[in-house]
């Protein structure tokens, strides 16, 4: 009967393990329907995770994850058939890449999908901080314009020296935009990039010393954790601005708060924090800071493109075709 | 500026009481604009009615015979009445981006030269316009407020904003400011089209002969034109209907370019998508209904001002006055049509 056939067909589809649903899946579940795979939803089970995995995930070859569900050594050990980890994010710091490499497990992410939107957000944050747009908006909404007169001046964007930390897709997109505003672009990356016209700095400290603003666009790794520390911030200086659209932990947040409160740096535009959704109270009281709830880099269009890329990677894998966005460690 | 290198003009070598007089027209509410007063006083004898004990009218009349030049600070009106008190006047030096507060027709009739602020503010204004657009599309200020109100912890994720890349942006008035805005938005992958009084030759962006046509074909409008009789309320109900429910308006020109009452209605009723405003019909008064809206960003006429542009303005103002008194070509003469 037709029903049985359908069940058989469903049972035939290879399973993709999902431990906890990535935000993308929650928002756009219908985009994850595929004729090539079905989802094994661990979070819907009442069993403790390791028991669930041992019972049901023995033959699972692919897992779909995000920052909300790290793929640790322990989890990998419970998935003897695992060959692919697809993360619904550009970041991969929540995946034990070393273990994946050791076992020949491929990793795919959504790099490139958010580059333009991320760059737009970074520039928007920089303009906001420099020209005090959000602070001025608060000033007007509190009815202060008639009584207090003009709002304090911002600072000109054109001619500023902007140091990009991490010149990947997003960093390059930021550079292209800021050039149109008349900014001078400098950068630091793990390695110098050939064919790029911008001056390269071997370390972040020197970059900061030569910059009016830093824009953090790099991945979070063991090397970049707390890379923006007190020394870097002091080198950036009292007029210096930090924009972070990457990961909160790239900046030593406690030090940054202190530098901002004491006026050792000029301001900050932050979309990410070390312990989201918790944001240091001191930041919420500063006018030279713009805060975004890990949101300004995203758009609905970007999310949909990310869904398509995630599904595309999974379908390619199950069709024995090359992955669309394989993560290659440099 | 060249004037440092030219031969010393008379005003630089004369002792203070022989400095050439310049009448200053300013309103009391503008102290920040007058930051370059001390610099001017080094070169000219400033006649400021607001510093005098007598009424302005009589102060001006008393000094009128010797007043050849007038400095207009910010948007202080220079009306035909003021001009009629100054029979010897030959030059009006403006110090703001807009010129709609000066009776240019009367100046032309009397043969009075006028100098503008040139293109000093253009880049800063363009930067601000782009900042407002990103802010409205991505709810940057609203998201900031969400975080500061501890709602991120209490309520969870904030709604997604809209993409900028690929948006059709209609520039109303493709002068210097409009061109700078267009140049920046191209780098974000926007599609630019424009409306102007006349089509501009050698411009690669599509031209629309009416603002309504431009609006029909745009996702966002950026108002970059000057305020004249023709452009008063150029953004009216029809234009906003044409722009549509997702449409965004950014105004860094003059408040009266938009029918503000209609704009508020459209926003309140959700008939347009959002607005970023730096100027209003009756500053510093801002329609209160806008205060509660997340898709609106409000600035207090701040787009022009950065310390850098004010510094450049100071040089330009002094430069124009010196050129005038030395009988040399003015640095930034207005074309009085």
Task: Give your account of this protein's structure.
The complex is a heterodimer of chains A (330) and B (337). Chain A has 330 residues and is an alpha/beta fold. Helices cover 37% and strands 13% of the residues of chain A. Chain A has helices at 2-12, 23-27, 49-56, 73-77, 97-103, 115-131, 133-141, 144-148, 169-180, 204-209, 230-236, 253-262, 300-318, and strands spanning 15-18, 38-41, 62-65, 84-87, 106-108, 161-165, 184-188, 213-216, 241-244, 267-270, 289-291. In chain A, the strands form two sheets. Chain A has a six-stranded parallel beta sheet with strand order 7-6-8-9-10-11. In chain A, strands 2-1-3-4-5 form a five-stranded parallel beta sheet, with helices on both faces. Residues 1-9 of chain A have low confidence and may be disordered. With 337 residues, chain B is an alpha/beta fold. In chain B, 34% of the residues lie in helices and 13% in strands. Chain B has helices at 10-13, 37-41, 56-63, 80-84, 104-110, 122-138, 140-148, 151-155, 176-187, 211-216, 237-243, 260-268, 307-325, and strands spanning 21-25, 45-47, 69-72, 91-94, 113-115, 168-172, 191-195, 220-223, 248-251, 274-277, 296-298. Chain B has a six-stranded parallel beta sheet with strand order 7-6-8-9-10-11. A five-stranded parallel beta sheet of chain B has the order 2-1-3-4-5, sandwiched between helices. In chain B, helix 12 (260-268) links the parallel strand 9 (248-251) and strand 10 (274-277). Chain B is elongated, with a radius of gyration of 22 Å. The chains are: A alpha/beta (330), B alpha/beta (337).
Summarize this structure as a short list of keywords or feature phrases.
heterodimer, A: 330 residues, six-stranded parallel sheet, five-stranded parallel sheet, 13 helices, 13% strand, disordered N terminus, B: 337 residues, alpha/beta, 11 strands, elongated
